[in-house]
């Protein structure tokens, strides 16, 4: 990590990024287009926005091995699966429940890293995992009393979170050999292709949407991606990775508040208690990180 000072105080872009990622579920809710179409155009517009900033790095594509291309393909597939499942969950369950479950991504990455990389978590990490999982139990228990539809949405969000955790485990391996920019660009292109094939297979209309929908597709690329995740990646030059990781706690809080304001989705007692447990568990998990982790170059929302 560089020791140079950023051109502005890190707190400013950090706050901008935390606010930006909170708008991801809100924008998904506002769109009437199929989630696979939303995801496809979000990836397309993100790639278009990224291209001008790394044209010189494109020459390095020729040096990527066949094994790494297979890993990149898998990363793109699981990122597409994450978007498909998580965005669909917002149709069935509340914004609060969906984003609380999504914030469990670091815990699932920790579990996967234990089996894949033999990374043994310490006591704080294990305690944090237990507390966070208990929080998910509270959220799910509360949604059972609401409807089976809400439980189905929670399940989609959980499966989507597992998918993005697999994506992150692949990133952890391949980023040792491929730059973060090139990794992100290629994975986003592959994700776009996966969505395109999925839409073709289901004969989902990919054109003919009103101007408002195209505006939402573009905003999904600009707000939570450019002003969210790309700002976080830029900040990794100046602040610790654990500081950036803390932003995962902002999404369920910010998104839930926006859900109450814009959609009148009041947070239930179970969601509140579950959210507190999840955040407390994630705080313990973050404390367990002794060294900076691999930068997060995927989109989780």
TrEMBL record:
Coiled-coil spans in chain: none
Keyword Methyltransferase recorded: no
Database matches in InterPro entries: EamA_dom (IPR000620), EmrE-like (IPR037185)
Family: Belongs to the EamA transporter family.
Keyword annotations of the record: Membrane, Transmembrane, Transmembrane helix
Transmembrane segments: 7-28, 40-58, 70-89, 95-117, 124-144, 150-170, 182-202, 214-236, 243-263, 269-286
Keyword Manganese attributed: no
Ranges of residues in domain EamA: 13-139, 153-285
Topology of the protein relative to the lipid bilayer: Multi-pass membrane protein
SUPFAM superfamilies with a match to the protein in the record: Multidrug resistance efflux transporter EmrE
Stored PANTHER family: ACYL-MALONYL CONDENSING ENZYME-RELATED, EAMA DOMAIN-CONTAINING PROTEIN
Protein name per its UniProtKB record: DMT family transporter
Protein localization: Endomembrane system
Main location: membrane
């Amino acid at each position: 990590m560089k020791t140079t000072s950023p051109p502005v105080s890190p707190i400013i872009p950090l706050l901008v990024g935390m606010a930006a990622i909170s708008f991801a579920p809100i924008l998904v809710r506002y769109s009437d287009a199929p989630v696979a179409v939303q995801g496809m155009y979000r990836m397309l517009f993100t790639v278009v926005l990224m291209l001008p900033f790394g044209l010189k790095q494109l020459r390095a594509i020729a040096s990527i091995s066949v094994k790494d291309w297979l890993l990149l393909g898998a990363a793109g597939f699981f990122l597409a699966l994450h978007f498909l499942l998580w965005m669909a969950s917002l149709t069935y369950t509340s914004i609060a429940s969906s984003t609380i479950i999504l914030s469990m991504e670091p815990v699932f990455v920790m579990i996967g890293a234990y089996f894949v990389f033999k990374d043994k978590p310490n006591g704080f990490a294990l305690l944090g995992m237990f507390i966070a999982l208990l929080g998910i139990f509270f959220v799910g228990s509360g949604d059972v009393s609401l409807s089976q539809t809400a439980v189905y949405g929670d399940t989609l969000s959980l499966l989507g979170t597992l998918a993005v955790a697999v994506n992150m485990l692949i990133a952890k391996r391949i980023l040792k050999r491929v730059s973060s920019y090139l990794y992100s660009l290629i994975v986003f292109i592959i994700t776009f292709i996966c969505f395109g094939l999925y839409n073709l297979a289901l004969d989902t209309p990919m054109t003919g949407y009103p101007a408002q929908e195209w505006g939402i597709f573009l905003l999904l690329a600009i707000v939570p991606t450019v002003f969210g995740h790309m700002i976080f990646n830029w900040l990794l030059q100046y602040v610790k990775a654990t500081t950036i990781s803390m932003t995962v706690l902002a999404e369920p809080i910010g998104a839930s508040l926006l859900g109450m304001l814009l959609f009148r989705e009041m947070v239930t007692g179970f969601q509140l208690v579950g959210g507190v447990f999840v955040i407390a568990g994630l705080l313990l998990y973050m404390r367990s990180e002794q060294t900076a982790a691999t930068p997060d170059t995927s989109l989780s929302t």
